[in-house]
């Protein structure tokens, strides 16, 4: 089981934590036929089936250059066909929420952020909250108002499958978004200075995560670490040390065996720890 840092439990209890959900969380979901959402790598592999030649794209995928690979795939397939296969993968299958989604919702974080295009978590969360959770995209002009308010909010960092034309998926789209929606990224940076980010189901190669954490560390000399959970052996220990030092991250490893059951059990325990601390806060009023 994961040993949760006391600071993480405290920050979630006091709602000073942003829970950041990556594609690894969506992978826990299935639809009625047992189908699971593809990872970014798996999606791009399936997308190049009818592209020939494809060796240049396969090399990009092997080198983990998914942004460029996606850019090439989208151009070769054409915008209309690419949009069709994106919707077919992330919307049409109607994936159901998994136990991990339910436990994350039980943490009752005021702010949840995700680069995932799918609607698995937000659909479940709003069904449980009777539609009271606000969902904001990176291109919305009133994100700051929602952050300043008191309502629960889900930030869709890369957009939603409901608006495939506005997804941030390729290298060009990343570059455009950084300029066109710079205020949104400035808001994320501000949150990284005032809140602890807990990254679940994410990888260290996500461009947004790298830029966000490196900027907050070197611009502001931040000393309080954010937290990322990763399966054991996904990174060499020497690489982990470098990432922790340059991204201001506390990387906590867990066993990925049995479909990452240790992660689910650990988040379940985290829910109990947070609820116990909130009960204590009711008594001592030390908010």
From TrEMBL:
Q: Name one Pfam family in it.
A: SIR2_2
Task: Kindly give the InterPro entries that the UniProt entry links to this protein.
Answer: DHS-like_NAD/FAD-binding_dom (IPR029035)
Full protein name: SIR2 family protein
| Natural source organism | Halomonas alkaliantarctica
